[in-house]
Amino acid sequence: MPRPRPAAAAAAPALAAVLLLGACQPAGRQASDGAAVAPGANDEAAAQSVVTTDWGPLGPADRDVIVQVRQAALWEIPVARQAQRGAARPDTRRALAEVARRHTGLDRLNRQVAARLNVPLPARPSAEQQSWMSEITGKSGNDYDKTAVARMRMAQGLLYAELGAVRASTRNTLVREFAQRAQPFVDQQMRQLETTGFVTGDTLPDPPAVTAPPPPAQPGRRAGPAPAATTVLSGGG
């Protein structure tokens, strides 16, 4: 495995420390302090329950999006801070510095909302996130830049979609306001990552499943422009 670049290596010990904190956890869910807790039937039932709050019912998807925003911050902030010093290209350093700055603000908002809704938050990256962090620190040069951007852009795309789904469906007004404020944060972070030139088709999440997709136009024939909806609805008159 290639060794990290000298600049990245200076920041690697701090990132490695984050990895070691959770590397030996047994399987199970994480408590609010990040410690592993063995799952049980009561835990699973509670996770699927809807609880009453001052802002309306709080369901599983509401709690999950709050936890996922926190989970993203736990690995993306240290990776972005490391990359702003150790990335090979200036464009990558600038983009990741902005991601770290914005993500820190989003994490602050997320913790405030979680506290008001009494949603426990993790304190360590997940096992999968730790593997991404380890993968990134093991790269050098342009491979370091490309891997950091690819992993982060993929994760941001998934989080953006989850925020949109919760924004559209939640019955909890505080969660709705949070998702409405958080989605532009994530959108801007995706834009920052895309300025690096390392975002390609293989760095994007899979497109959503469509049950009845519209058919493509006939090969070799360009579809004509559709008339205005108001014209169609009025019968063309």
From TrEMBL:
Keywords: Signal
N-terminal signal peptide: 1-31
Matching PROSITE patterns: PROKAR_LIPOPROTEIN
Record's keyword annotation contains Lyase: no
Biased composition, class Pro residues, residue ranges: 205-218
Annotated stretches, region: Disordered: 198-237
Composition-biased stretches (Low complexity): 219-237
Domain DUF4142, chain residue ranges per copy: 61-194
Protein name stated in the entry: DUF4142 domain-containing protein
